[in-house]
Fold these 4 entries.
Entry 1:
Amino acid sequence: PGNRPALVCWDFDYAIHPADRPNQQTGPAAMTTTPKIYVAGHRGMMGSAIVRNLQAKGYNNIVTRTHAELELSNQAAVADFFKLEKPDQVYLAAAKVGGIHANNTFPAEFIYDNLMVQNNVIHQAFLNGVKKLLFLGSSCIYPRLAPQPMSEDALLTGKLEPTNEPYAIAKIAGIKMCESYNRQYSASHGVDYRSVMPTNLYGPGDNYHPENSHVIPALIRRFHEAKVSNAPEVVIWGTGTPRREFLYVDDMAAASIFVMELDKKTYDSQTQPMQSHINVGFGSDITINELAHAIAKATGYAGNISFDTSKPDGAPRKWMSSDRLNQLGWSPKVILENGLKQAYLEFQSHS
């Protein structure tokens, strides 16, 4: 809207989801259960998956707003919303997201808008008595050359990946904001704000923009178009050697709800007051070259695959340690091959 660059994807306003009206509730009124939950970013890939999974678990008192209905970077508007709705819990999945090209092109928007959104939501949640909040971060919070797999204690131990540093700094600020409110207001106000750090996500509701999307949706679109046009070759940015970990978005949503539902004593047993975030990963990684061939297979593309080595690679490896979450009893269910098939079917149905 306004003078914002048109090519930047607002994750919380991308994917159309049935729960896109204010105070959206599903099922008969008699089935409505407490708590009242606000999902910020319910139309984005992550937010819509959280709504799906909450509803599947019987949570029917879900509050939502579209981007047009509530501008989360507007402090006064967010304050009015919380005063009106008074939610019991908040899932903060709203964020401005994008791939290497978008982060390099719009660094000012990525740091400003993400800081404004999370500052407004977290602070107004506190002012309006919200006891439980879950902040969703990103694996880019860790240093570019962090030891692999990256554990939670790698945070703030080295330089960030330059291509997405502004976005990463905003996400780090969100973690520290949650920790700060816990440290200051846990005893006096019962505040329990938690953070989860997802690895690279893909699946239903993803952004398939040709320039500003992440690697899996970008490649799904590119291979699909190459198949349709009978293109003899698909050229991919970089060398193909960086390794990445990928998690199906509904697995991430299930993990988010799992963490939110943990009793405080159990959550505190795996975290520290100033290192309170928990990683959510798949458990293994693959090269971009291997990923490209897997997506070519999922889309049915049979041509050649080459790499443009003049383009940036990003971090050489991003693989997260999910040991803490695994020790708490959670593990992913969707393997990459099956997840790519589902993602391609969803792309075709909305292309």
Note: The mean pLDDT is 90.
Entry 2:
Amino acid sequence: MIILVTGGAGFIGRWVVKNLLDEGHKVTVVDNLSNGQESNIEEFFVNKDFEFVNGDIRNADLIDDFISKASLCIHLAAQINVQESLDFPERAYENNVLGTYNLLESCRKFMVKMVVVGTCMVYDTSSETPINENHRITPASPYAGSKIAAEEMALSYYHGFGLPIVIVRPFNTYGPYQKQNTEGGVASIFINRFLEGKKLQIYGDGKQTRDLLYVEDCANFIVRSSFEENVVGEVINAGTGKDVSINNLAEMICKDESRIEYIPHHHPQAEIQRLVCDYTKAKNILGWEPKTSLEEGIRKTTNWIEHNLK
């Protein structure tokens, strides 16, 4: 089986590719490296079952060429930065909506199953209970809006054309290979600043919470969702079912309150106060559960960043 992974040189994509190769699949990655990095996947270049193409999903002709040879498309390529989408909404639209449309049209042409990797950022921000797939949708940024638009368009191809579609929504994912700058996740940013001897900066009051999913658990979830026929036409969440406040996360990493500072939030309108996943559906249909505790995941991520810190 040849599997096309868009955005496969990105943080989560890199781990999805590794999981697929470990299972013996042939993998083609298409990534324009606007967010991903070739260094993330360089270890796979010696694998005869791996192919990398520096290409853009906005190029419909390129996509046709690779979809025609594939049995499955796992779609991770996206504009993913919330602040960038607020500053330049057109980038979110072009990448996340038009890019997804190109893939859907090509998958329809060759009847190739497509797995769309969405985001928990589409959910309503006022939840006080764990979020399941039926929770209200309230996108608070062009990033979230473009991702839900892409999901709905994909589901229309399932209902309208019979194209096999799966929508997966991982919650906040962290771990090795995640960027440690402002485009990365909060855990990786905190760890990097701690190792560099800098203060950990918290936007707002730090009481906002996140459900932090270790990246290898996330990749395993995406791959399992890709091969399970019972989730075709479905939306399915993945998380740990536990949330941690940003304050507690910072204290867990630096163990010194004097190394924490609070700064004004640069996009408070897009902030989600509480995020905790209800992954009951993934457990019941896939038999999937996260294996990595937050403490173990932080340790693994710290070791990796420390080893690669330049």
Note: The chain has ten helices and 13 strands.
Entry 3:
Amino acid sequence: MKKAQTIPFNFGGLPRDEWTWENSRVVFLPVPYDLTTSYLPGARRGPMAILEASTHMELFDEVLERETARIGFYSLDPLEALASGPEEMVGLIQTFVEPVLRADKFPVVIGGEHTVTVGTARAVKEKYPRLSFLQLDAHADLRDSYEGTPFSHACVGRRLAELGPLIQVGMRSLSLEENLYLKDAPVKS
């Protein structure tokens, strides 16, 4: 009987024996997390949906005229969400991104809700102290705290602004608290 072909469950559906940690320059970390989502839960399904969809796309870039995956794409296993709270999750994400950066690889963290950005940003900021941030979002996410935690999805912009310069694009709504913060903060909206 002929062995069935399988599609590897990684970014791009690339053959597992072709791309290893050692020969890859880009490392994908799926983080299926949505503990602080306040409107519709389900963001935790995003990373798996992105990985699955990536197995059906072409990997050739017509502008670069090359298959971009040839620089080496390596996918880590999905990070298990912690139920102990968003602050601990932010710390866990940071500890997973740090070795990627130490190995001089480019981390691509696929969330989940916005909170996954904070752990990633902290790790990258350690390596690149002059880092600035560009936030593409319909909401300001500049609250100091939301629903009892400063690590809510609604606080991500504020946490990023504390780490470095933040530019926000696409914002269409914000709270009174966020508006007052913007009047004094170094955020460009």
Note: Strands lie at 26-31, 60-61, 66-67, 73-75, 106-111, 133-136, 166-169.
Entry 4:
Amino acid sequence: MNIFTYDQFTFPLPEGHRFPAEKYRLLREAVEMAQVVPPEKLIVPTPATDNQLRRAHSEEYLDKVANGRLSPEEIRRIGLPWSPELVVRCQHSVGATIAACRTALQNGRSATLGGGTHHACWDEGQGFCVYNDTVAAARAMQAEGRARRVLVVDCDVHQGNGTAQITQGDETIFTFSIHGEKNFPFRKIPSDLDVGLPDDTGDADYLAALESALHTAVARARANLVIYLAGADVHEQDRLGRLCLTKAGIAERDRLVLGVCRAAGLPVAVTMAGGYGRSLPETIAIQLQTIQITAQFR
């Protein structure tokens, strides 16, 4: 299995900023230490091209991002200060998800140590999300003739409003989001299938809701590829989560998604999506667990 990483493309942040930029380097180091894959299978991706990004975003928005012409309000909604380094980082994030999709279609499974930037909309970014890697990657696979239909399984704790907005009316990309109903974004854009859960939902109720909806999504999507957003922010100690899954429960979630997809003959590209734990090492451990389960799944 190939794993794609791009943590070396850093960007400046003010001291005390709540975006956990260090997480990506630490996760890559944890993957290396655990020897999840041979070193040659841990790959730095090529950046997404302008054409690939245009499949998910308007020309005007892409020009603003590339040339630093976002308004203060647009930057505030994204939650990250603009810099040329941020643009390069985000281009590589999308490139990693595209590469993971290609590899998954060849070998059954693949992963990126980031991605899942599902709040980015057609003409704006939100919630630490500049470009929507999920939509760009899905449409890249379609444009390359590798997949006709794509299923997005979004298990980040926050609803995938940007993915839903960009793909409205596109019957070839089926969006499924299971999330905290009262959490961000507070104005949700309907996915093809949404499951909103109450605060403090724990392992058993979460897994029951996921299993039922997942079978429905697979049947309705009739997909050739799954992009799985495996957010760690459903964990009980996540600062932004409001759900109460344990680390063991998240492992069962990952096995459930991979198992249902395997039974349906669907290749899976895994992205890490959110994770804002009170303990950064705990978040790293959860995301490493997801990568290990994906690599070892049979």
Note: The first strand starts at residue 3 and ends at 4.
